Amino acid sequence: MSAADETLESRIREAERRLEEAANLAAEAERRAEDEIKALEADLERERGEKEQALAAAEQRLGEIESQVEEAEKRVEAAEGRAAAVEETIADELARARESAAQWLQSQLDSLRREAEGR
Questions:
Q1: What was the pLDDT predicted at 116?
Q2: Is the dihedral angle over the CA atoms 69, 73, 76, 78 positive or is it negative?
Q3: Quick one: CA torsion of 44, 50, 55, 57, rounded to 10 degrees?
Q4: pTM (2 decimals)?
């Protein structure tokens, strides 16, 4: 084998070694990328699960708040009904008081007239 053949053979072995090294590096980079993708997918699933739980909790809380609002509205309506009844009772009592006062004044006037006629 000539020196030129040995040099060429050496260069071919070096190129093959570099190619194998590059292939190994590419395979390692691919494995790292796959591991990173799997980790990101796991993170994404965990985040989705947490968001779904948070959304479910928010929906439950919203339902509770809506129920509380309904109950409060019912209590307000009942209180307004009681207030209207009390206002009506007060108006009736005021009317009776005015009528009683008018009758009393009329009786006082009648009494004064009788006294004046008797003199």
A1: 85
A2: negative
A3: 170
A4: 0.52
Query: What span, in angstroms and rounded, lies between the C-alpha atoms of 111 and 99?
Result: 18
Confidence of residue 119 (pLDDT cuts 50, 70, 90): low
The angle at the Cα of 51, spanning 49 to 57, to the nearest 5 degrees, equals 105
φ and ψ at 39, to 5 degrees?
-65, -40
Gap between the terminal Cα atoms of the chain: 170
Residue type, 16: E
Q: Which amino acid is at 41?
A: E
Cβ-based neighbours of 9, under 8 Å, separated by 6 or more? 1
* DSSP code at position 95: H
